[in-house]
Amino acid sequence: MANPTTRSRTGTTARRSLTAAARAAAKRAERIGHDPVDKAEAPTAADLVEDASDAPPRRPEGQQAGRTLLIEPPDGWDDPPEPRLESEDADDAEDAETADPGAERTARRRSLLTAVVAVLLVAGLVAVGVLGWQYREGRQAEQARTQALAAARKAAPVVLSYDYRHLDRDFAAARKHLTGAFLDQYAKTTRTVVGPTAKKYKGVVKATVAKPAGGGDPAASVVSASPDKAVVLLFVNQVTQSTQVSGSRVDLNRVRMTLTRTSDGWKVSAVDAL
């Protein structure tokens, strides 16, 4: 025998379901403009119960069907860089263009100042080097003038004098003051021309560097001078005696001597009569 309590509860529940279903159907009909009184179009209670029992449960709004899978990234996987929008690149470019102009000008001034200081420093070093070289050259040239002038005054009387009675000694003494090609030329000339002529005519030549009438240093001056070479102009008096001349003959000559610095001092490398 069936339990009456169970049937009563079941019937009550069924009636509540029908009532709720009817109310829902009426509301749907009103929303779509249908007349709920029209029994031909209104669903029956059995249809509503059947529809309610067959319809799947409704999901809360916003919930989607399907399963969620978790995928672990493989080893060594690096997340790709986030994409940059063109607007961001434009903003970066705009930031670079709108950087502080004062800082840029200051940096440029510093760079320009550094370059100017470097140029001035190099120019100063070059100027100091040039001035030092010129000073050294000037001192050497001044020393050359003094030394070459003294050597010329000493060499002129020896080179331009001779005596037929001791020619070899006089020519040997003269060669000590000579250098270079002029030494060879002098040796050849005295051996082939001057020596034989002096012996034949008993020639004697005595040369001296002229002195001013009022006294003082011999008349000689430096025409040009460098550390290794100098040109000296001398006024030389030559007194000549021979069998071809009655008495003595005095010749007033101007002689240009070129002197060259050697390891043994200043030597005559050329003699020209003017």
Automatic annotation (TrEMBL):
Its main location: membrane. Residues 88-98 have a biased composition (Acidic residues). It is found in: Membrane. Keywords: Membrane, Transmembrane, Transmembrane helix. One of its GO terms (cellular component) is membrane. Residues 1-24 have a biased composition (Low complexity). PANTHER family: OUTER MEMBRANE PROTEIN RV1973. This is Mce-associated membrane protein. It comes from Streptomyces jeddahensis. The lineage of its organism: Bacteria, Bacillati, Actinomycetota, Actinomycetes, Kitasatosporales.
